[in-house]
Write a structure and sequence with these properties.
Blueprint: E1 7-9, E2 12-14, E3 25-30, E4 39-44, E5 47-51, H1 59-68, E6 78-80, H2 86-89, E7 99-102, H3 104-118, H4 123-130, H5 136-144, H6 147-154, E8 166-168, E9 179-183, E10 192-198, E11 201-207, H7 227-239, E12 243-246, E13 252-253, H8 260-271
Helix pairs in contact: 3-4
């Protein structure tokens, strides 16, 4: 994988250079909610890097969030997808000037799911193939959430934009100092998180390797593809010290203090009422 090879530091496997002091500004431009993924904008100099882009139906929410921080979609230089669930890739095409960093393994696992569902396969045929560990109870929960209907309504390969923009992390050098990709498989086979050396401390943009701060809310998320891998990834995330940005919740500091990005988002919401 050349310059993109996974390395190990303090028990963490990662892609990227050594820790450097500060530099990246972290702003939450789309809040994490149970049915809305968090989108985090990372800025340093002329680089504007967006982590996850939400459902395609959340395009106006994402545009408004970017506008609030003075950024247009055309000014976003890079998109990083933590994984290929539809609520994290849906607005990739909104950023035509951006290179997209994502896992080929995750792409090649997820897209056949969407094609199978849209081709009319039943839920048990689909999810026993791609989610072999799913229990009957989890099947029922996915039925109640209308997961398959959501896929049929929303999946459109055009949401990904031009595929020549994609830089697969398994085979591409990672060019960003102060940002490190962390493999966190389990939720999906190729899930990654992003460790950030930010102006106000260390951040970990966790995607759905940690979707919620509150463990009681975990049942709202999709079940893991591989439970053992998911548990191992969570064990690593739990050892991180700094601000965690969950996939579907507010940022929080692991030692229990308030995260600046979450406080800023709440302050904006209060000012708008």
């Amino acid at each position: 994988m050349g310059g993109g090879a996974w390395q190990e530091r303090n028990g963490w496997h990662y892609v990227g250079g050594p820790r450097r002091a500060g530099g990246w500004k972290v702003e939450i431009v789309m809040a994490g909610l149970p049915l809305q993924s968090c989108s985090a904008l990372l800025t340093r100099g002329t680089e504007r890097l967006l982590v996850d882009t939400g459902f395609s139906s959340h395009d106006s929410v994402l545009r408004d969030g970017l506008e609030r921080v003075g950024v247009t979609p055309e000014q976003v230089t890079t998109v990083v997808n933590t994984h290929f669930h539809l609520d994290h890739i849906g607005c990739n095409a909104m950023f035509p000037a951006a290179q997209v960093y994502a896992s080929r393994r995750d792409y090649e696992w997820a897209v056949p799911i969407y094609e199978s569902v849209c081709g009319g396969e039943t839920r048990r045929e689909v999810f026993r193939t791609f989610y072999p560990e799913v229990t009957d109870e989890e099947f029922e929960r996915m039925d109640q959430a209308r997961v398959l209907q959501l896929i049929r309504w929303l999946w459109d390969p055009a949401m990904l934009g031009e595929m020549d923009r994609y830089r697969w992390i398994e085979e591409t050098a990672w060019p960003f100092e102060g940002l490190r990709l962390i493999p966190t498989p389990g939720h999906t086979p190729g899930h990654v998180a992003l460790e950030v050396d930010a102006e106000d401390g260390a951040y970990l943009v966790a995607g759905d390797a940690r979707a919620f701060r509150d463990e009681a809310a975990v049942g709202l998320d999709m079940p893991p593809h591989n439970f053992a891998q998911y548990q191992e990834s969570r064990r690593r995330l739990d050892a991180f010290r700094g601000i965690i940005v969950p996939g579907h919740d507010e940022p929080f500091q692991q030692d229990g203090t308030e995260a600046p990005a979450a406080e800023a988002a709440r302050q904006h919401e209060g000012d708008s009422h």
